[in-house]
Structures are given as structure tokens and as C-alpha cells.
Amino acid sequence: MAANPVLAPAIFPMFQRKYAGFEAIQSNGVATCRVPTTGRHYAHRLHFKTSAGANLTQAEIESQVTLIKVKINGVTTHEAPPAVFHMLQKYYGDAKGATIVPGVLLIDYCRRHLTLPAERKQMALGMQGVDTFTIECYTGTLSNLAVIDFNASIENVESPLGPHYRLLSNPQYKNTTGEHQISDLPKAPNAALLAYHISLGSVPGVLSEVSLIADNVNLFERQAPTVTQQVLEDAGRNPQSGYYHIDFNLNNEVLGLFPWTQNKRTVQDWRLTPNWSTAPNDFKVYTEQVFNMPQL
């Protein structure tokens, strides 16, 4: 669709569009959507339906789709099950009443909790330099899922990919109580941390406190879940059951993040240490980060 000069960008900066949906939807398979590589992408909404067009419930989506991956030029930028995308929508969106709508799963590429529109736009995905953009839905046994429509919030502006948001998964295992030091979480010289979301595992586990150290500096020192909950609620977050959240953007500002490279020096010793009073067995740490950051 060609840009209409009558619709000035200042008046209609963003369009909501439906594109070709997912292909090869079947049990124990991988349904794929080829995302258009034009414009600037702010968010995608996957619409899960039955063959009769009825919306799936949140529980039905989470039971039939096991994993969602977003890939840009073949690189995985998002990897999590639907439950984590739903968790993030409630964690950031509940303060403004953005509830989960039956059938719809949000993949958000912007930081919508920031105050100014210009700040929220900074993480939008420009498509210059992007050759392939795909979303994959890994399925288990399908009971009523038959259709996945693809909808995009998109702006008719061409721009480079630039700094962009990623959601990564890091599996862990801890079958005893006590401290569990984690030093292999993803970090890169050109990236910055927004938040960690620690799942409480399959048992589930119970956390007594959490610490985070960067080159012997305590960023979070022995923080109990109840204290962290008050801190997060004061910042407009809604801490979610089954997770412990570490958030670097509590002031809701564009620079609310932790760059792993500062003053041309990259953090070497980076340790997240949950202390478990009940062991979780398998659990995951989900990392929200900004990739392709300029050097600070």
C-alpha cells in the first residue's frame, strides 16, 4: 500500500495492519510467519483461533503452543513460551489497564511504559538491512488451534534496525536449597540489560533473597521478594506470580538500563545469585536487553 500524502505522519504515525498468517499449523510442528521487511515495526499481535473462528483462551494458547521464536536475518531475538509473553504484558501493562484479550498474544518491540512518545519509539524495528524476518510457533498436541493470524503495528517510515529489544532464555537447574551462582547469562559489549525475570521452576521453588554483582559491586544485595515487590509496584509494575523480577528501569526513563560496556570497559565478573529456601529443580532466567547499543 503506497503512503497517502493526505494522511500526514504527524496525524496518523502508526497503522494497524493484517498480513498473511502462519503456515504449516499442525501438532508437534513449527508454524511459521514471514514478516514483511518494510516500515518500522512497533508490535506484533498473533491471533489464535479455531477453525470456526472462535478465539482461543489464554490457557488454550499456552497448552498448545510450547515456544515462540522471533528471528531477524536468521538470528533469534526473542525466545520464550506464550506464558512468558503473557507475563510481560501483565507486568508492564496492568498499571494502565492493558488486559490480556482472549486469542491475542502481544510481541512488543517498544518500551511502552516510558513517558514520552519519542522515547517509546526508540526501540521500534527499522527494516533497512533486514533481509528475513520470521516468527515461529512451536506446537505440541493441537486440540482446537487451527488459525494464527498476524497483525502488525507499523509506521510507513524506513530506517535502519539500530538498537533493538531482545528477549532471551537461559535454562538453569538447582535441586538443593541455598545459593545458586549464575555467571553464564547472555551479555555482550554492545548490549544493555533492562530486566531479569527468574521463573520459579517446575516445583515451584521458593526464593528467600537475590543478589546481583558486577565486578565486585553489589547492584542488588540480598533483596527479599517482598521488598522487591514493593519497589516494583512503586514503579508501576505488577510483579507476577511464579517469577522474581530485577528491573533496571524503575524510573521509567529512556536511560533506565545497565550497559555492559561503560567508559570503554566491559563488565567481566557478572553474577546473579538466587538463594532458594525450596529448590526449584529446572528453572529459567529470561533476559530483557537492548542490543546494538552505542558505546558509552
List its traits.
about 45% strand, 2 domains, about 10% helix, Jelly Rolls, five-stranded antiparallel β-sheet, mainly beta
Tell me what the structure shows.
It is globular and about 50 Å long. The chain has helices at 58-64, 82-93, 117-121, 225-234; strands at residues 15-19, 30-34, 40-49, 65-72, 75-80, 104-108, 125-126, 133-139, 147-155, 164-174, 178-179, 191-199, 206-214, 217-223, 243-247, 258-259, 261-262, 265-266, 270-278, 281-291. The chain is 11% helix and 43% strand. It has 296 residues and is mainly beta. The relative contact order is 0.20. Strand 4 (65-72) and strand 5 (75-80) form a beta hairpin. The chain is built from 4 helices and 20 strands. It has 2 domains: 15-160, Jelly Rolls (Sandwich); 166-291, Sandwich (Jelly Rolls).
How would you sum up this structure in a few lines?
The protein is mostly beta strands and 296 residues long. The chain has helices at 58-64, 82-93, 117-121, 225-234, and strands at residues 15-19, 30-34, 40-49, 65-72, 75-80, 104-108, 125-126, 133-139, 147-155, 164-174, 178-179, 191-199, 206-214, 217-223, 243-247, 258-259, 261-262, 265-266, 270-278, 281-291. It folds into two domains: 15-160, Jelly Rolls, CATH 2.60.120.730; 166-291, Jelly Rolls, CATH 2.60.120.730.
